[in-house]
Design goal:
There is one protein chain. The protein contains 15 helices and eleven strands. It is an alpha/beta fold and 390 residues long. The protein has three domains: 88 residues, no CATH class; 79 residues, no CATH class; 198 residues, P-loop containing nucleotide triphosphate hydrolases (Rossmann fold, 3-Layer(aba) Sandwich), CATH 3.40.50. Helix 2 packs across helix 14 and helix 3 packs across helix 5. Bound molecules: guanosine-5'-diphosphate and magnesium ion (MG).
């Protein structure tokens, strides 16, 4: 294969020379910094090994050129992001360290970038890490003890994905409710008509606690039942679990009209994308959130990131299957420390030093594709507290 090395003052000039000398559809195989600017390794398109004609997609004429151009653009963008990453690390190592800490702990890039952008100047790495911890703690929306929904009483429905821990959590919450109000003033409602055995599970807990259990097959049943339970100080409704994309989710929104407040039950041991979906679908306009399965979440950073961005108050955390022991009031410092510690775990998914420039390239590409509007939800919502930047 006929490859050639080009040295130019910058990538744009290099690319122009490549095109001029090897043709419009030349392919840049690699780029790297050079004392005189940038070094590009390029090859004419025809010199590349290509699949046999039969396997080739239809890339004749202009579509082939377009595809090649977009490939070139991608390659160059990744390389430039790599340079930018190297430069940023040399120029602003503290800010880069803050970003790395957040990414390693599973926080998402939009929050990480916002926080890094607010980092006060002149801090050393240790001071920056202390600042980061404090800002995360201050911005984690933890509901105060005085706002404990079980002590306050009311009608609550637990909503969330299948298996997120709704029924188990109801049993834990009901125990608190009984402690606060007595068993005669607490009622459980099984409104999970979709799953065989769902009621049986709740009945066992109701019997153990000595509280009444009411079963509803549908929304109409719930509408009839709730006025009957008006005198109870605390009513806990167990709903059917849906996938966040399931249209039946609307049924749970109809609860609002009945004066029922929703508590979104979200398992912290899921991928960030699943947590984000659940937070959007179940958390929207919910009274509060309950994070479950923290005992099975080695990196709870993604769940905390989602709470911070959605400003959904965290009412309880669950860290195990035991009823009622494994339910606690949340403590922001404990949760943030756990998340940051999760970033130190050595796993095959952790980025190694040489992966960072590549990661930066992927991020740059993503930012490009999602528009240059610089998604900064925190700034837009003006909710980032205590960063020293207002
Ligand atoms: N490890 C762990 N398991 C939990 C937790 N909460 C619930 N579970 C388990 O998760 C499974 C599903 O719980 P369930 O309450 O039936 O979920 P639902 O479908 O949302 O009602 C059960 O095996 C529970 O024991 C928790 O905080 N930690
Ligand atoms: Mg259930």
């Amino acid at each position: 294969m006929n490859t050639r090395v080009f040295i130019a003052a910058n990538a744009r000039e290099g690319l122009m020379r490549v095109r001029r000398e090897l043709g419009d559809d030349a392919v840049v195989l690699s780029t790297r910094p050079h004392p005189q600017g940038v070094e590009l390794l390029a090859s004419a398109y025809g010199d590349l090994a290509v699949p046999a004609i039969g396997e080739m997609p239809d890339t004749s004429g202009s579509s082939r050129i377009l595809a090649e151009l977009s490939r070139l653009r991608g390659l160059l963008q990744n390389q430039l992001a790599g340079f930018a990453w190297g430069t940023a690390r040399r120029r602003d190592p503290v800010r880069v360290a803050v970003l790395q800490t957040l990414f390693a702990a599973g926080f998402g890039s939009s929050l990480a970038r916002t926080l890094a952008a607010h980092l006060p100047r002149g801090l050393d790495i240790e001071a920056a890490q202390r600042w980061l911890r404090q800002v995360l703690i201050r911005n984690l929306p933890v509901a105060g003890r005085e706002a404990d929904p079980m002590t306050a009483g009311g009608h609550y429905a637990l909503v969330g994905s299948t298996g997120s821990g709704k029924t188990t959590t109801i049993a834990k919450l009901a125990t608190r409710g009984v402690d606060a109000h007595g068993s005669a003033d607490v009622a459980l409602v099984a409104a999970d008509a979709y799953r065989i055995g769902a009621t049986a599970q709740l009945r066992i807990y109701a019997d153990l606690l000595g509280v009444s259990l009411h079963v509803c097959d549908d929304q109409a049943g719930l509408v009839r039942l709730l006025p009957e339970l008006k005198a109870r100080k605390l009513v806990l409704i167990d709903t059917a679990g849906f996938a966040p994309s399931d249209p039946r989710i609307r049924e749970s929104r109809a609860l609002d009209a009945l004066g029922v407040r929703r508590l979104a039950v979200i398992a912290a041991n899921q991928q960030g994308a699943a947590i984000e979906q659940a937070m959007q679908r179940f958390g929207e306009a919910a009274a509060a959130c309950i994070l479950t399965k923290l005992d099975e979440a080695p990196q709870p950073g993604a769940a905390l990131d989602s709470l911070i961005r959605h400003r959904l108050p965290l009412a309880y955390i669950a860290g195990g299957q035991r009823v009622p022991e494994d339910l606690h009031a949340p403590n922001a410092a404990y949760l943030i420390d756990r998340a940051l510690k999760g970033g130190q775990l050595v796993t095959p998914y952790a980025l190694e030093a040489e992966d960072w420039p590549l990661f930066a390239g992927v991020e740059a590409d993503r930012a490009e594709r999602h528009g240059r509007m610089s998604i900064d939800p925190l700034k837009r919502m003006n909710i980032l507290k205590g960063t020293g930047a207002g």
